[in-house]
């Protein structure tokens, strides 16, 4: 196979696709990002970026652009959802920044995506096409050729499929893998900080646990808004990205929660809902000159707040592998080798959190007692393997 002497194609202009383009450019490689939406944008409310993702964003040169947008919560406060009592306080802020060398950031998704997009627009090595859904792909001995919905074709050295959870390229090139509904859906919203009831900390990450639901909130947009996620049991979910949902559906989900949390949820009138899907057996990440990345490769349930961070890590490592190897085959094999065990571990840890969050009865009581008794430092140190990841800066 030949060297990377032509442009690398990227399908999907979400966090993963844009981070990959920036990481490739940092190493001197040109890319072309196809995004099927008519404008580059993102859906959803907030996003938490642990220190492992912060390292990548800093190396992509985004630290300054993001500084004024980032929230830096002091702690994660875990609440017993029913009583509202605090079960434990896991230190973030300076503590986590010192421990792992990067802060724990929280963003409005739009702010994070806009920073990645602005940097990509400013970069001469990156071409962006919106309204460009990749619908076909053929692989030759030394090239790939992507076809978009309008019939245009573009040749490149390889294609990175960063087309998200419902990846059509995964189905096309990696065999049909069934996404499994987790029987949970997430409703997301953002509300103005002045509408947040007193009694809700707006400077921390709040995590409220009850038997069939949990709630997460944290400050975004420099503390002027609060992002809110309500995850609740759901019987069914139509396949697809996101849907409108009635506020009543969300309120019903938190009926067992303390009044202050119910007041917080009632303060929101505009929710969107995401069915939460898992891919228990991710396919190989590489097939010839096509590599899967981010949610397309390995969707992560959101109970560890790491799916987007994994997409950032993937993009950075993929670019590293492209720089370190002479041909596509060796570079993509190295990428798969470097990423697979880690992302499978993250997927598993997230599933486990999901089980723990929704425990019922005596098991929930035992969980709460354990959280109360655990030294906060220990609760954080169990994630050293996750947050302590450092990209190779070379
Ligand atoms: C409720 C919830 C909360 C979450 N919270 C967090 C969190 O706090 N922290 C965290 O790190 N992660 C979180 N995640 C996970 C995170 O949102 C995803 O892991 C992340 O968005 C994946 O990025 P991606 O670029 O791989 O895919 P996506 O963000 O889905 O981007 C894929 C892009 O590809 C485009 N596309 C699709 N098909 C094509 C095609 N054929 N051609 C061209 N373009 C195409 C789409 O329009 C889209 O723009 C959360 C997820 C959920 C559901």
From TrEMBL:
Keywords: FAD, Flavoprotein, Monooxygenase, Oxidoreductase. The keyword Aminoacyl-tRNA synthetase does not apply. This is FAD-binding monooxygenase. Residues 8-343 form the FAD-binding domain. GO terms for molecular function: FAD binding; monooxygenase activity. The keyword Oxidoreductase applies. Pfam families: FAD_binding_3. PANTHER family: GERANYLGERANYL DIPHOSPHATE REDUCTASE, MONOOXYGENASE. Transmembrane segments: none annotated. Its cofactor is FAD.
């Amino acid at each position: 196979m030949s060297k990377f002497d032509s442009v690398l194609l990227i399908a999907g202009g979400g966090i993963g696709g844009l981070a990959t383009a920036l990481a490739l450019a940092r190493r001197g490689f040109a890319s072309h990002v196809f995004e099927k939406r008519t404008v580059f944008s993102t859906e959803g409310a907030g996003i938490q970026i642990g220190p492992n993702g912060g390292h990548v964003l800093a190396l992509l040169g985004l630290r300054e652009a993001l500084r004024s947008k980032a929230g830096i919560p002091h702690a994660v406060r875990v609440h017993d959802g029913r009583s509202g009592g605090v079960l434990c306080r896991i230190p973030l802020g300076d503590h986590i920044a010192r421990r792992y060398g990067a802060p724990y950031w929280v963003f409005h998704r739009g702010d994070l995506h806009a920073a990645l997009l602005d940097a990509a627009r400013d970069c001469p090595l990156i071409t962006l096409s919106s309204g460009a859904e990749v619908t076909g792909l053929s692989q030759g001995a030394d090239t790939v050729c992507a076809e978009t919905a309008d019939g245009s074709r573009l040749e490149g050295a390889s294609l990175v499929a960063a087309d998200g959870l419902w990846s059509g390229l995964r189905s096309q090139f990696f065999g049909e893998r069934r996404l499994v509904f987790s029987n949970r859906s997430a409703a997301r919203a953002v509300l103005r900080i002045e509408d947040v009831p007193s009694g809700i900390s707006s400077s921390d990450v709040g995590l409220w646990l009850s038997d069939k639901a949990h709630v997460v909130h944290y400050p975004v947009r420099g503390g002027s808004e609060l992002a809110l996620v309500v995850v609740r049991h759901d019987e069914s979910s139509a396949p697809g990205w996101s849907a409108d949902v009635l506020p009543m559906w969300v309120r019903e989900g938190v009926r067992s929660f303390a009044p202050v949390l119910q007041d917080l949820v009632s303060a929101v009138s505009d929710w969107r809902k995401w069915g939460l899907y898992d891919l228990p057996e991710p396919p190989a990440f590489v097939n010839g000159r096509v590599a899967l990345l981010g949610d397309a490769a390995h969707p992560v349930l959101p109970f560890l707040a790491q799916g987007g961070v994994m997409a950032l890590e993937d993009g950075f490592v993929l670019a590293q592998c492209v720089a370190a190897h002479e041909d596509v085959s060796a570079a993509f094999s190295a990428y798969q080798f470097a990423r697979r065990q880690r992302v499978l571990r993250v997927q598993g840890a997230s599933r486990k959190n999901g089980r723990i969050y929704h425990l019922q009865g005596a098991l929930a009581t035992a969980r709460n007692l354990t959280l109360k008794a655990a030294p906060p430092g220990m609760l954080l140190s169990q994630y050293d393997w996750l947050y302590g990841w450092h990209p190779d800066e070379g």
